[in-house]
Design brief:
The structure holds three protein chains of three kinds.
Chain A: H1 20-55, H2 57-65, H3 69-94, H4 98-129, H5 148-181, H6 191-215
Helix pairs in contact in A: 1-2, 1-5, 1-6, 2-5, 3-4, 3-6, 4-5, 5-6
Chain B: H1 4-8, H2 18-22, H3 27-55, H4 66-102, H5 110-133, H6 146-149, H7 154-182, H8 195-227, H9 240-274, H10 281-294, H11 310-338, H12 347-370, H13 372-378, H14 382-412, H15 418-445, H16 459-489
Chain C: H1 9-28, H2 31-34, H3 41-61, H4 69-95
Helix pairs in contact in C: 1-3
Classes of the chains: A mainly alpha, B mainly alpha, C mainly alpha.
């Protein structure tokens, strides 16, 4: 029972596990199961997207022309880089380099901010034009399709849910930074860092699909 | 090793005070908190059931008008589904006994476990607020366009409540899968696990896979109502049937979230009280997983008359009948276990046998409803109401009651009054059949469900049904008395009053804070009676 | 000790480079951007590239390649269930016969 009172960063573990490795593996399994629920939650939206895009191809092609692919492409790159810096922070924690670990987390956080800022620019631009979801759609320019609102509903629901996940991920990264600065992560213990990393990669994964589906429809 | 002082310490007196309960990470205490909340919700849902039956005692309005009736029906459905039957077995009995069955000290993520209880409480609070303060009359299914065109905003709140309670369910499922995979006692492989664990494991997989789809559906519904996003609105090219696809992709597996752990309990009860090793262990274990898998392929049988295409309907009709196969495997194995066993007719066993009787009726009428041509006739009639009450009440609730009596000595270290428990069973069993069997006939005659009023021709059978509901109420009140009386005045229970073989009976009653005095090591199967 | 496997820095760097190249490729073959047109294959190409990228992230950043295969099973079964939801809903949509009420 002595291990109960030992901090985890020194190889301790909760009382119902056999050892730190057992705890690490179990926690990771739990996170993977959680990611599975996230995928299924987004999955509902993807299913709706495919069904609607199949039923109204013209609407979706036209809708995509109101989106600027350059913004999307930049955001893709930003998220990919952030995923890279996220794995590096774990890499440095594994090698007991606390300072580099914290720096990498800061870069990841900064990427999150850039992503959200670009999203903000895109959203405000569209809201000004009246390119709003469903019933609120009030765009007055020339349009080929009558139900463009449906495209923008999918756009806002998908990017909105994704954006909220980016925000949650950023919050978690801040929490990791606080803990990393206290020197809690090292080669013996980096469980929470690993788990937040997995979540962050999932957010990246979803964007990898969202980008071609929303910006590059043809 | 364990002295007398050691033995007197248990999870109930490990710490003291309300605060120690509200912040506990002990799965046993969280299980007890679930027990209290679920019983409270069951009481509220039950009162609405009684009011509904009272309203239907005669033609015309008795106590409420048509709108009031719709609200009561929504109350009853939403409370019973989201707050009673779904958390009922996994979160209450499962929480308490999964680690004990596995020989573990706790579930994998104790903090997440506590969080899921708070999710249930918060979600329930939001739902109750929406039900009482706002007028919601959509039924528990929130079908569009009804839920969207309704003038009050109550539906959004109720949907939000269900969303939060869904998280509770997801977190419980996640915890159970991780616990089952990682925290088994030394020597316990997957095929040394008790069948209740197999039931919980299959349930947990369903909770993880199905519930997120409900979450997104409810989010979309809220967005539809607030912003008119048009996913379910034909005006913009959306499709109300899509809502039903999404909704039943969760809610049909949810039916199995309700019944699979119940089947697990029944497996435990039948083998323990027949004093015989379970017949066809692997068949029962695999049929649990089989039911869980098949349950994802059958959701469309709720939509035979909803405008779904004929092709999809035929596919779903066929697949639905497949569910009957693993279910029948279980039933036959239970009966085979009882054959030539030394059956003891104590109250848990009575409930198990009640389950076999009622669930078989519920299951067979389910196969009838799976036939498309029959369903078109029976859809939205009292036949369907009777069918799912036979499954949900006759199945799940019977199993919960049986499970509570079976594990009561272990949970509280006290025995209950056996005679009163049997009396309670008699009232519930008879009352249940008196209430719901007439509804099969009413449904076959064409009485539609969810209606506030009915034709005079249906009156006699409705009266029988209402009288039956009073018998059930008496039965449950006696049951409540048995539990409270047992808690206050019960005799001290031995560690293993039933002579059962699973691990939880090897520790003291009630179990100590860390479950076992010494880490158990498993050397054989879970039911080695002979 | 599969979870504590330390992957060399160069692997991460190469994966990032591959991911960025694939992103450029996605844009380059997109019809609205470059005018490149492979007919019905456009959509499949876009999804194919996205899936390769997703595979790289899963295999290296999320370490599925080195980790317990149980996690792989979790994610694969998730995608399969999603496919089920989609395909059955699609069967319904594709075979539905519109009926106009005579009332």
């Amino acid at each position: 029972m002595s291990s109960v009172n030992k901090p985890r960063s020194e190889g301790g573990h909760a009382f119902h596990f056999d050892g730190p490795e057992h705890e690490f593996e179990t926690t990771k399994f739990g996170i993977w199961l959680f990611l599975c629920t996230e995928v299924l939650m987004f999955g509902g939206l993807f299913v709706a997207y495919f069904l609607f895009a199949h039923k109204f191809p013209e609407t979706f092609i036209e809708g995509a022309t109101y989106l600027d692919w350059k913004f999307g492409a930049v955001n893709t790159a930003v998220l990919l880089v952030s995923s890279f810096t996220m794995v590096l922070s774990i890499y440095y924690a594994q090698n007991n380099k606390t300072k580099q670990c914290v720096n990498m987390l800061f870069i990841t956080l900064a990427c999150g901010f850039i992503f959200m800022f670009i999203k903000y620019l895109e959203y405000t631009h569209k809201i000004d034009l009246g390119l709003l979801p469903g019933d609120m759609f009030s765009f007055t320019g020339e349009m080929g399709s009558t139900n463009l609102g449906l495209y923008f509903s999918t756009y806002y629901m998908m990017t909105g849910l994704h954006g909220s996940h980016v925000l949650v991920g950023m919050g978690l990264i801040v929490w990791c930074i606080v803990r990393a600065r206290r020197g809690e992560y090292n080669s013996k213990y980096f469980t929470t860092l690993e788990c937040v990393g997995l979540f962050w990669h999932l957010v990246d994964l979803i964007w990898i699909y969202l980008f071609p589906l929303l910006y590059l429809v043809d | 090793m364990s002295s007398a002082a050691d033995k007197s310490k248990n999870y109930l007196n490990h710490e003291k005070g309300l605060w120690s309960w509200l912040t506990t990470l002990d799965h046993k205490r969280i299980g007890i908190m679930y027990m209290i909340t679920v019983m409270l919700f069951f009481l509220i849902g039950g009162i609405f059931a009684l009011l509904i039956r009272f309203e239907l005692f005669s033609t015309g309005g008795q106590i409420v008008d048509a709108d009031g009736y719709n609200r009561m029906m929504t109350f009853h459905g939403a409370i019973m589904v989201f707050m009673v039957i779904i958390p009922g077995i996994p979160a209450f009995l499962g929480n308490f006994f999964l680690p004990l069955h596995l020989g573990a000290k706790d579930v994998a993520f104790p903090k997440v476990n506590l969080m899921s209880w708070y999710c249930l409480i918060i979600g329930a609070a939001i739902s109750f607020f929406s039900l009482f303060a706002e007028k919601v009359a959509t039924g528990w299914t929130f079908y569009t366009p009804y839920s969207i065109s309704e003038t009050s905003n109550g539906a959004i709140l109720l949907v939000l409540g269900a969303f939060v309670m869904g998280f509770s369910s997801i977190l419980t499922g996640l915890n159970f899968v991780a616990t089952t995979h990682r925290l088994r006692a030394p020597g316990m492989g997957f095929f040394q696990m008790p069948l209740f664990v197999w039931g919980l494991y299959s349930t947990a997989i369903l909770q993880i896979i199905a519930t997120p789809v409900l979450a997104i559906t409810l989010l979309l519904l809220a967005a539809e109502k607030t912003m008119g996003i048009g996913f379910f609105d034909p005006k913009l090219g959306g499709d109300p049937v899509l809502f039903q696809h999404f909704f039943w992709f969760y809610s049909h597996p949810a039916v199995y979230i309700m019944i699979l752990p119940a089947m697990g309990i029944i497996s435990e009860l039948i083998t323990a009280f027949s004093r015989k090793v379970i017949f066809g262990y692997k068949a029962i274990a695999f049929s649990s997983v089989g039911i869980a898998a098949v349950s994802f392929f059958v959701w469309g049988h709720h939509m035979f008359v909803s405008g779904q295409s004929q092709v999809a309907g035929v596919i779903f009709s066929f697949l639905t009948m497949l569910v009957g196969v693993p279910t029948a495997i279980k039933t036959f194995n239970w009966v085979a276990t009882m054959y030539k066993g030394s059956i003891q007719f104590q109250s848990p066993m009575l409930y198990a046998m009640g389950f076999l009787f009622l669930f078989t009726i519920g299951g067979v009428t389910g196969v009838m409803l799976a036939v498309m041509a029959v369903d078109v006739h029976f859809h939205d009639t009292y036949f369907v109401v009777a069918h799912f009450h036979y499954v949900m009440v006759g199945g799940t609730l019977m199993a919960i009651m049986g499970g509570i009596y079976y594990w009561f000595p272990k949970m509280f270290g006290k025995m209950y009054n056996e005679f009163m428990a049997q009396l309670s069973f008699l009232f519930i069993f008879v009352g249940f059949n008196v209430t719901f069997f007439p509804q099969f006939i009413l449904g076959a005659q064409g009485m539609p469900r969810r209606y506030f009023d009915y034709l005079p021709a249906f009156e006699p059978l409705n009266r029988v049904s209402t009288v039956g509901s009073w018998l059930i109420a008496i039965g449950f009140l006696i049951g409540l008395y048995v539990i409270i009386n047992g808690l206050l005045k019960g005799k001290k229970a031995p560690d293993n009053p039933w002579g059962a073989k699973t691990l939880e009976w090897q520790t003291s009653s009630p179990p100590p804070h860390t479950n076992f005095h010494e880490q158990p090591v498993v050397t054989g199967g879970p039911y080695e009676f002979r | 000790m599969s979870g504590h496997h330390i992957i060399p820095f160069s692997v991460y760097r190469n994966v990032l480079i591959a991911l960025l190249i694939l992103t450029v490729l996605t844009v380059a073959v997109a019809k609205p951007v470059s005018g490149f047109d492979a007919g019905v294959f456009n959509f499949l190409i876009a999804m194919g590239i996205a899936s390769v990228k997703a595979g790289l992230v899963l295999a290296y950043f999320m370490q599925l390649k080195y980790d317990n295969k149980l996690y792989l099973a979790v994610i694969v079964s998730t995608v399969l269930f999603l496919g089920l939801l989609f395909s059955v809903a699609m069967i319904d949509w594709a075979t539905r016969v519109p009926e106009i009420s005579t009332l």
